[in-house]
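User: Please fill in residues for this 234-position structure.
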């Protein structure tokens, strides 16, 4: 490992220690009101770390943000009271984020959210994000009716996810993996689909009018209006 990498990860550990004072301090509270206040303080500290100009603090904040999605963690407090806020913060940062380590950690973190149903992910940089299903997952990532208008999903994977009715209008899905994904009624109008993999996807009712580089296996399912009329999987 290069010396610069050692410094970065050493810095992240140090930031965990600093930011984690309030985060892990939740365990010291027994009363529900005190726990709620402590979780709120922890959330504020993590957001401040993400807003820092220090890349190391940003990385630590990106990692810690996932704990607000886990109802078994001290930040989840048994009911993930800040899960929606965490999704909103991540989405806001991804609208401004350049591709890189912090962006990747933030984007990947969305798959741990309790739900992404109707999530506002417009214009988010989801490059290389993995939002698909992994072996052993207890839940499936659910993007039903989520709004990904003009989002960048270059090289991203939604393999095995649910995204019925999701909006990918004018989104970039170059080399994206949507294999085995439920995409019934999804909107891919004017999307960039170069190299996108739809193998095994469910696309009934999905719209592709104006999309570029539509895979041949999808084209054969379209009617004259660019809508998938077949019930068959791709």
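Assistant: Residues filled in for all 234 positions:
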């Amino acid at each position: 490992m290069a010396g610069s990498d050692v410094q970065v990860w050493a810095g992240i550990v140090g930031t965990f220690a600093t930011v984690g004072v309030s985060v892990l301090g939740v365990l010291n509270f027994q009363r529900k009101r005190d726990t709620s206040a402590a979780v709120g303080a922890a959330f504020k500290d993590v957001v401040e770390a993400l807003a820092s100009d220090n890349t190391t603090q940003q990385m630590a904040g990106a990692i810690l943000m996932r704990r607000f999605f886990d109802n078994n963690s001290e930040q989840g407090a048994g009911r993930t009271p800040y899960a929606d806020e965490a999704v909103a913060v991540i989405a806001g940062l991804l609208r401004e984020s350049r591709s890189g380590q912090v962006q990747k950690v933030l984007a990947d973190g969305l798959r741990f959210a309790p739900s992404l149903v109707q999530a506002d992910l417009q214009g988010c940089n989801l490059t290389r994000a993995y939002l698909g299903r992994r072996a052993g997952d207890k839940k499936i990532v659910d993007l039903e009716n989520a709004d990904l208008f003009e989002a960048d999903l270059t090289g991203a994977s939604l393999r095995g996810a649910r995204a019925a009715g999701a909006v990918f209008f004018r989104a970039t899905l170059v080399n994206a993996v949507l294999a085995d994904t439920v995409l019934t009624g999804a909107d891919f109008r004017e999307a960039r689909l170069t190299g996108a993999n739809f193998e095994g996807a469910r696309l009934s009712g999905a719209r592709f009018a104006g999309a570029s580089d539509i895979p041949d296996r999808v084209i054969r399912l379209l009617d004259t209006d660019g809508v998938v009329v077949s019930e068959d999987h791709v």
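For context: The chain has a mean pLDDT of 88.
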